[in-house]
Amino acid sequence: MEPGCKTFCRICKEKIPVEARAAIFKHFWKLDSVHRKRDFISRSVSTKKPATCSTTPSRAKKSSRRYSLTTIEGPAKKYFVCKTMFIQTLGISDCWVETSLKKCQRGDGQSPDKRGKHKNRLNRVPEGTLASVRRHINMFARVPSNYTRERTKREYLEPHIKSVERMYKIYVTWAKKENIPKIASADMYRKVFNCEFNLGFFMPRKDQCEVCNKWKTAKNHVERREMVQEFATHIANKKLVTKLKKEDKTTASVTKCVACFDLQKVLPCPRSETSLFFYRNKLSLFNFTVFDLRLKEGHCYLWTEVDAHKGANEVGSNLFHFIQTKVEEGVKEFTFWSDAPTGQNRNRMVFSIMYMLAAAKSKLKITHRFLESGHSFSEADSMHARIENEALRKEIFNPEEWMALIEGAKQEGKKYIINKLKNENVSDLHFLVDRQNWDRNTNNEQVLWSKVREVVVDWKSPNTILYRYGFSELLKTVVVKMKDCSEMDLSMFVPPQAYQSRFPLTTKKKNDLKFLCQKKAIPSKYHSTFDEYLAI
C-alpha cells in the first residue's frame, strides 16, 4: 500500500482512515485469483457519460469514472475517492483498472485468466532440453566449503570454473557431442542454474564479517539503534586486536616466536583447465600454513584425504611439530594468532592440551590469541593467496607437483618450508580432552570456551590454563585435572596415534579418477601414484 494522494487533492486522506485502507489492501490481495481481483475492481469503479462536452471533438472526454472504497471491518461504509487514492490503496497500477473495465464492457464478465493455459506454446522449451541442462550442471564436481558448511547447504564448484557463461560454453560443446536435439539458450541455462540449484563459484570468505554486514544492511535507524552497542564493541575489538598483533610482532626475538596459522581451502588434485576435469571428483589435498612473523618464514604442512582428515587432531599435530622445530632453534616462548571459525570452538580445548604437552616437555610459555571474527586476515592468508595465484593456468597432476609449486610460490626471500604429514604422525589430542575436567575455573564459574579470546599456558604452572574473554579483562584460571581429580605428569605423556590405517576414497571418487586415467587425461607417468590411492 502506498501513501495515497496529496493533501490538496480531494481531501481523501481525511475521508478514509489509514486503518480502513490497510484492511482493504489486505482483503484485496487475499483474493485467491486474478479473476476475483478484477471483479473487485470493476465493482468499485462506476462509469458514466461526462456531464459536459468539449467543443473540440478530438479532445472530447468519452467517459467519466467514479472510484470508491468500501470498508471491510465493521459496518460497510463506502468512500468516494480520487483515482490516485484508489490505485495506491490497492497497491496496483493503472493497467489493472483499464483491463478490468475493458473485460467488463466487452461482456466477458470477469472471465478466468488464460495466461499460460493454452497448449500450443510454440516457444516452450522442450523438457528434454531442460533435462540436458540439469544433467550437465550435475556433472560438475562439488568442492566442500571449509568454513560455512555448518551454516548453509550451498555447494561450491571449483574456483577455476568462474562463471555461468563458461559453463554454458562447455555445455554447448558437450550437447553437440551428445546429439541433444535442441540446445538450450544461454538465458535458459542461467535460469535453471539460478532457480533449481544452490551453487556458487568460489569459497565464501571466512573473514566475511556478519556484524558489519548487519550494520550495512540495516533498513532504518530503529534497527541500527538496537545494535549500536554491539557494533561499537566489535569495531573497538578490531582496533585493539590490530594494535596487540603489531605489539606482539615487535617483541619477537631469537627466544620468542610470534606466528600466525590457518588452514587453506581444499586443493584439488589433479587440477586442469580441460573441460573433462570439470565433471569429475578429484583427490583432496590439505595445506596447513604457519608463518613466523620475525623471520618471515612460511611453513606448509600438506596431506591428502587418504592420510588424514582436516580436524583438530591434524592442526594440533602440525603445530606441535612446528613448536618442536623452533625449540631446537632455541625458542623458549611462543605467541600464536589465528582466526576462530564458529564450527571449531571445541578446538580451543584441543589446542590447550597440545600447548600444555608442548610446554611441559620443553619448558615453554605459550600464548594463543584469537583474531576478531570477520577481520581475521593474516600473513597466513597472504601465503594462501600467493599459492593460488601461482597455480593459475597451471596443470597439476599429483600431490608432489602441488608441493613443488607451493615451495616455489614465494619469489623473493626464503622459500616456503614443506612438511608432509603422514597418517602415523597424527596424534589423538581428544584422548586427554575427553578424560579431563574443563567446565569450571578456580572461582567455580563455568568456562565458555566458545567465547575465549586468549589462552596462556606456562610450564611453571603445570596442568593450569589462563584464559579471558576480552583482551582488556583479567586472566582467569582453569586447573585441568583428570575426572577422578588426579593430576598427570604431561612431561612424560605420549599421546596415542589418532588413526590405525589410511582412509579409502569414496566409490564415486575412485570411479572418476579411474576414468581420468583411462582417458589419459591424467598422463600415464602419474598413474602409479593414483593406483596407490585407489588400492586403499
Features:
single chain; 536 residues; alpha+beta; 19 helices; 39% helix; 16% strand; extended; Alanine racemase
Describe what this molecule looks like in 3D.
The chain has 3 domains: 12-53 and 60-105, no CATH class; 127-200, no CATH class; 224-534, no CATH class. It has 19 helices and 18 strands. The protein has helices at residues 12-15, 18-30, 34-44, 83-90, 94-105, 127-139, 164-177, 186-196, 210-217, 221-226, 228-251, 275-278, 312-328, 347-362, 379-391, 399-407, 430-433, 507-518, 527-534; strands spanning 45-48, 64-70, 78-81, 142-143, 155-157, 199-200, 256-263, 267-269, 283-292, 297-304, 333-338, 365-370, 417-420, 436-437, 454-458, 464-468, 476-479, 481-482. The two termini are 65 Å apart. The longest helix has 24 residues, at 228-251. It has 536 residues and is α+β, with helices and mostly antiparallel strands. The strands form 4 sheets. Strands 7, 8, 9, 10, 11, 12, 13, 15, 16 and 17 form a 10-stranded mixed β-sheet that branches.
Mean pLDDT equals: 85
Which range does the strand content fall in?
15-25%
Strand tally: 18
Q: Indicate how many domains the architecture comprises.
A: 3
Describe the global form: extended
User: How many helices in DSSP terms?
Assistant: 19
Helical proportion?
25-40%
Largest sheet: 10 strands, mixed
Ends: how far apart?
Answer: 65 Å
The low-confidence parts are: 342-346
Kindly name the structural category: alpha+beta
Nearest-angstrom radius of gyration? 34 Å
Organism: Frankliniella fusca
Protein name: Alanine racemase
